[in-house]
Write a structure and sequence with these properties.
Layout (H helix, E strand, L loop, with lengths): L6 H12 L4 H19 L13 E3 L6 E3 L12 H21 L6 H8 L3 H7 L3 H14 L12 H13 L6 H10 L5 H22 L5 H5 L5
Antiparallel strand pairs: 1-2
Helix pairs in contact: 1-2, 1-7, 2-8, 3-4, 3-6, 4-5, 6-8, 6-9, 7-9
Length: about 220
């Protein structure tokens, strides 16, 4: 039965199975799994409602946008503004690789991206906001996990969990930064965290298919 499925044990078995690649790879996978646990553990109740019933603010000064909007988080940006946001997101990843989350600041990211600090702050209110958006952009561009209905629900969910846990597994600095950033209580972070959680749940629901009832989805935490 699907209700006997333990996502925690499946995730651990998946990680252990890959640990033959090396201790560091195993630690990176566990970091990524912990990140998913943070997302599910801090979703607001509204984030569990159907997507069509919810809206998000694209940016701190933007108009509300639907969760189903094709643009990752921001509505109404010009092409130039969108490139600026993307440059800042890419620069944040580079900053994390060289200095880690401890030394990450919006000002340093702006300098690396060639953007004025004041401009950067119009898009990102904090480093937590910036890092959380980096993860959301990664997730929103992650290819859908193929769903083979000939496989059991357990195997389908396990495959989806594997893809999600591997999203930043090869980038330990980014994985650790995302875990820390998503614990922030900033309004912008909370909105993005809910969006990330909703997308993860959507993918898990797709994997479960007809067996995707709320009770089962409610148990799907990685840690």
């Amino acid at each position: 039965m699907v209700h006997e499925f333990s996502p925690q044990s499946h995730c651990r078995r998946h990680v252990v199975g890959i640990c033959s690649r090396g201790v560091q790879q195993c630690e990176n996978l566990l970091d990524a799994a912990n990140l998913a646990g943070v997302v599910f553990g801090h979703m607001s109740s509204s984030a569990i409602a159907p997507l069509s019933e919810r809206t998000l603010l694209g940016a701190s000064t933007a108009e509300p946008q639907s969760l189903d909007s094709p643009e990752p988080t921001r509505a109404g940006l010009s092409a130039k503004q969108a490139r600026t946001v993307q440059s800042l997101a890419a620069a944040a990843v580079e900053e994390l690789r060289f200095g880690g989350y401890e030394h990450l600041t919006v000002r340093n990211v702006a300098r690396r991206a060639g953007v004025a600090p004041a401009t950067a702050y119009t898009y990102f209110t904090s480093r937590e906001h910036l890092v959380t958006e980096v993860f959301w952009r990664r997730l929103s561009h992650l290819p859908e996990t193929p769903v083979d209905r000939r496989r059991t629900a357990v195997n389908r969910v396990s495959a989806t969990m594997s893809d999600l846990s591997l999203l930043v597994a090869d980038e330990p600095e980014l994985a650790a930064a995302c875990t820390a950033a998503m614990l922030a209580t900033d309004a912008e972070v909370s909105l993005l965290r809910d969006r990330i959680g909703a997308e993860m749940r959507r993918r898990l629901s797709t994997a479960l298919g007809d067996q995707a009832d709320p009770d089962v989805l409610g148990t799907l935490e990685f840690v």
